[in-house]
Automatic annotation (TrEMBL):
InterPro entries: CAT-like_dom_sf (IPR023213). PANTHER family: CONDENSATION DOMAIN-CONTAINING PROTEIN, GATA ZINC FINGER PROTEIN-RELATED. Transmembrane segments: none annotated. It comes from Corchorus capsularis (Jute). This is Transferase. SUPFAM superfamilies: CoA-dependent acyltransferases (SSF52777).
Length: 471
């Protein structure tokens, strides 16, 4: 970082939501990764210049997280100039990395892009954050991996406190623009200050809650967490890492599923979460073998940019999502569309009551307490819910810009192997095809376990799409 003296505009304490991500880093949570497969050899100099322009335009990604051991506090300290370094791995080095990953039997049928994504998710540069020996860490990293057959994987890895899903989508689109054939000289607006945290932008009165109401809600969240059903835990003792299973549905079946959602006035998140609960309840991997009714936790993440003061655009980098936790009782035999409607209505009712704003501090507090006291969760698993989904789906269509840079495929998600749900769904409709990156903690759950769950979800969704006229 520059040795120039810092002014007040270059330092900002993290907000409550950002702080929960920083606290979670020791367990591995707080990592967002975007992995891009390309058929064009990336010009490292050109890529670095593009990333520097992004850093100039978005101060949050040219910041470092500073930890103060004495006060146990974190701050963003913004550099006056961009500084990212692009690591490059030649084909031999990449092959050695992949060979080590392929040594695991469960990884042998997985694509190089998929394995590199997992490798980066678990290449945790923030592992020692929070120790007095390491009080300063970057929030933005870039790497290029060379593959056989004239293919490369470009990876951007960010601290989640600086990157929610909306940021990741904008980051990809801006990067493609800046690395386009005719865009090398494109200039972007330079900004100097890191924007305020989400808590500081909530409209006055929207997050207001009496002390009594806050206490009752926190007690309710705490007690209910012990009653939630999970998948069977395979290994609660070994160190955790992140693994990913991909759910792909062809365009025709995707169209039918989306039509079913539209006909019922719900979003895809309702169908995804309902399919997850139905699949879990009928799975052999469920915690209990009896088929009595069970309660499951569902977290829905919603982007708050449009309701903040001042309102933020989708091009505004940072973490501005909030969560709503709802619980649902499953008896067995539920129909997808009926359950999806019920779950989506429950979410929208909570959102209309501003729970995504009023409960924000409570959920962040409980998340931090759970990390400090793993025994508060089932089998010390640090599970907060069964599944998490996003309210809004990302839609992406291939275009000339993507073709210019040779983009063949990409995968993007955030790690949840510190504390979080058993499965987190990152959904995209790309060229009409549903593409879900399903993230889970290993070895708490196995790849076989989650693959079977995801396959069951896919079958439930496809079948429901074919019978979208039914309830």
């Amino acid at each position: 970082m520059s040795t120039q003296p810092l002014n007040s505009s270059q330092v900002r304490s993290v907000g409550g939501t950002e702080h929960s991500w920083c606290k979670a880093v020791l367990g591995g949570t707080g990592i967002a990764v975007l992995a891009i497969l390309t058929t064009q050899n990336p010009d490292i100099s050109r890529l670095r210049n593009a990333l520097h322009k992004l850093q100039n335009s978005h101060p949050i990604i040219r910041s470092r997280l500073h930890y103060n051991p004495s006060g146990n506090t974190f701050s963003f300290v913004t550099s006056p100039s961009p500084f990212i370094h692009v690591k490059s791995f030649n084909q031999l080095t990449t092959s050695n990395i992949l060979e080590n990953l392929y040594n695991k039997q469960e990884n042998q049928n997985i694509s190089p892009l998929h394995l590199i994504l997992e490798h980066e998710l678990n290449k945790n540069a923030w592992t020692t954050s929070g120790n007095s020996s390491n009080t300063k860490t970057d929030v933005f990293f870039a790497s290029v991996y060379a593959l056989p057959g004239a293919k490369w994987v470009v990876v951007l890895r960010l601290h989640a406190s600086a990157c929610d899903r909306t940021t990741a989508v904008s980051l990809l689109r801006e990067l493609l623009t800046l690395t386009g054939i005719n865009e090398e000289g494109k200039e972007m607006t330079n900004k100097t200050e890191v924007s305020l945290a989400i808590e500081d932008l909530v409209p006055k009165g929207k997050a207001k809650k009496t002390l009594w109401a806050r206490g009752v809600n926190m007690l309710s969240y705490s007690v209910n967490s012990f009653r939630l059903t999970n998948l069977k835990f395979k290994d609660t003792k070994s160190p955790r890492s992140t693994q990913v299973v991909r759910l792909l549905i062809n365009p025709e079946d995707t169209r039918k599923i989306l039509s079913g959602c539209e006909a019922r006035g719900i979003k895809l998140c309702g169908a995804l979460s309902a399919a997850g609960l139905i699949a879990a309840h009928s799975s052999k991997w469920r915690c209990s073998s009896d088929y009595q009714k069970k309660k499951y936790g569902v977290v829905t993440l919603t982007d708050c940019r449009s309701i903040l003061e001042p309102q933020l655009s989708n091009q505004h980098f940072g973490f501005y999502h909030s969560a709503i936790l709802n619980t649902h009782v499953i008896k067995g035999g539920e129909k997808l569309w009926e359950l999806a409607k019920k779950m989506y209505t429950s979410f929208t009712n909570s959102k209309n009551c501003n729970r995504h704003l009023s409960d924000m501090a409570d959920l962040n507090f409980l998340m931090c307490r759970a990390m400090e006291n793993p025994g508060l969760t089932s089998s010390s698993s640090l599970r907060t819910s069964f599944i998490s989904v996003f309210e809004d789906t990302v839609f992406d269509e291939s275009n000339d810009q993507q073709k210019q840079v040779g983009l063949g495929d990409y995968m993007a998600c955030a790690s949840t192997h510190g504390i979080g749900p058993s499965i987190a769904i990152f959904d995209t409709i790309r060229d009409g095809r549903l593409d879900c990156i399903c993230v889970y903690p290993s070895p708490l759950h196995s790849r076989e376990q989650i693959q079977e769950l995801v396959d069951s979800m896919k079958a439930i969704l496809v079948d429901a799409g074919k019978n979208a006229d039914e309830n």
